[in-house]
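Tokenise the fold.
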Amino acid sequence: ATVLCTLAASTALLGFCLILTGKLKLATLVQYLPLPVVGGYLAYIGLFCGQAGLGLMADIEVKHPTDLLQADARQCVLMAPGIILGTGLYVAVSKIPHFSVLPIIMILSILGFYALLYVQGISLEESREAGWVPSPQSSVEFWKVYDLYQPWKVHPWQMVRCFPTFLGMYLVVAFGSSLDVAAIQMDLGKPLDFNRELMVVGASNALSGMTGGFTGSYIFSQTIFLMRAGVDSKLACWAATVMQFGFFLMPTSPLPYIPNFFFGALLVFIMFDLAVDWLWYARLKLSFVEYVNLWASLLLVIVFDLELGMLLGCLVCVLGFVVTYARATSFEFVEGRARVVRTRYHSAVLKHAQQSHALSCIQLTGYIFFGSSQAIVTQVALAMDHFQECLAEDLEMEAENPRHQFLQPELYSRWQQHIVLDFSRVIGLDATAARSLSEIRHNCASYNAILIFAGMCPTVRSLLDAHGALSSDSVRNFTSINEALKWSEQEHLVGYDRSVLPLNVVRGGGIPEIVDILKYFLDIDHAERQHESRRNVRGKFMSCDMQLHRVLDDAHEQISAQFQKQVLRRGAVLFKKGDQSSAMWFVGDGQVSLT
């Protein structure tokens, strides 16, 4: 009496707990499980069904797949028809998408079995002795079972001792049912209400417990059969309910007349359906890392049981995410400019500073953690090395071509490299990343560079300050990226007095100097054709470009007076091939194409 009443009461209480869980909308938490873990769970369910089917047909207890290796020749013969029938069911349902395929094959398999017995003259009892058909079990009318429920004989303390077991049962049923809903949702391709489905399971358990029944969960196999048969109607569900209730009311059970390989074949069919889908076809829907995680989750569940295996599978997915996220680009070098109007000459100077990494702006995004911070440190070190190389090239180039220098020699020693870290898109960082960024501060100090932090939120700023990343004379901190770039650009432009640069500009003499510069462009083009060194050509281009911008800034009024403005409509012809050259055109607005 204690056992029966405890089971019934626990089932009813479980149902109410599941209904409450659905009301609190906690069932959707299972959707946070990684897809590879869910796939590994479903593949495990498939293998478990196949293992159970083989054990049922061979009449052996299978606790581990290796137990099947102990089957003798007779047991292998008993398993063979079920394996063949289950494989045929899977192939037929896959190739012929019609709802009648599955039930027709199932019915024909039973009729074929009894037809074979009749042809060979084998009786039902002989087939039972051979292990093909289960033996009948003694049963009583269902209403007589209630005579065993005697509440006055119940030991309450024994019921209380079962409470920890009840909690485990609640977690298994709630979690397992939610996982089954997730599996069905993925197969259907349309969203399901997890909480509503769990409440249905809870209502079923509550009704079962109050009527003296036992715990139940989602009928996963029934759902698979209906989906594979292409049946999407509530009528099929009502038909299954009525038939099961009819079997319950029957005075004798029909199960002793159905061959064992029939049930074994259905379980083998479920095994193929789940295992093939998730262990083979899933590779087309998952990335390589996720597919590896799926197999890892399956192996972990097999080795460490379901709960611990799924937990370890989640940890494997987390590790895979960390590795993938660490390899992803969480930063990039951008040509950031302050929102300040600059002259053409100053713009050219700043452009050269960015190209040589004298002014490097690095935009950080997302969450900076121990995996991605080291990549940032490496790239910043490469940027500082590149600046030193460019600085050495420029010094050598100016020594070889003093006439075309655009910087005074004494300014090179004052031209510090600025590394600007834009944190405006960073949502956070961990302690390891903060410690790695403090290494950038030490590297900048050794290279005599300035490290600039911009746009940090208070949490990030306090963590970096705690690790000493902000405490140095070579570090600057600004509240916005625009303020940081404005200060850095101004520092790079300090000392650029155009009146002392070479190619002195005489007011009113802008036009001849422009001609000289353009001729020098032609000389550069000739040098390229003569395969002059890339470094010298680059330096000449840079020098000429900056001088041209400087002249245009200084002699704007004088130059403008020498030009005539000409407006052309769309499609108009400016000149044709073969026309005599009489002028030089500069495009002020729009674009011109050669046809």
Notes: The first helix runs from residue 2 to 23.
